[in-house]
# Entry
Amino acid sequence: MPMAKCMRRLALAIIALSLSALTATAATLDGIIERGTVRIGYIDDEAPFAAAKAGADPTGYAIDLCDKIADEIEHQLPELKREYVQKTLANGFDAVKDEQVDLLCGAITVNLERRETVDFSQPIFLTGASALLRKDSPSYLQSFFFDKPAVSAVSQRAASPSVIGARANSTTGAALHEAMKGQTSTTTIADFKTHEDGLKALEDRKIDAYIADQVLLTSLATRARDPSLLEVGNRLFTHEPYAIALARNDADFRLLADRALTDFYLSDDFLPLLETYFGSDAPMLHTQIIMQHVP
# Structure
């Protein structure tokens, strides 16, 4: 067989295999219709975005938005059921990739590394990383995380050893570890499985600061034993756009999700939902999200 003809057949075979693989991963809605169920994955311990409740469905801002997408599916499948599947940051994206869940909801930052595994809806929230500190945390940490002088006089100096906590597998924790690489410093990093574990370590004086996205820290501080002893930094050090994770190579399902979100953003119900979860910050957040939404 002539070489040119052989190469053409090889190219066609590769194209056919690629299209076959694409078809296999581009049928999220078909799978939902066949099962009669949409599987909503969520990452617990991310209040006010997603949090488990004993004996009940999870609650949170991201959960509510995933339910809006389910409402859109329900237009095509009136008998649609909803199954909520708890996942972690460590396994949630693989669960989307392996078709164990159809949507993944929570305080989920979009970045290029994660987009190698999953796709994302349009943004649902914008925030950035800061720190939760005790009011007697080392003064140099207070100066670093606040746009004001340290609020309390403390004996620790910058040269004193300190420990900063972060949640394992989070983008904030990864950024902190990367920043500390090759640095000669008395500061060490402690990884925690959950934000609640980090809060307890801060209250028990095992760490001097806990780093996460500011909006999560604000909620976390309210669950402290004595919130008056803690404060959330007002300086942001990263850009964290949140979105809902979806399967890659399924433009039709992403379009459905984005259409549902846009319709809700432009409705009279969106601002009240923001007020439910974010109080007085709702008008500012409403403006930010509307400016970022897909028209």
The two ends are 54 Å apart (CA to CA). Residues 27-126+240-292 form a domain with the D-Maltodextrin-Binding Protein; domain 2 fold (CATH 3.40.190.10).
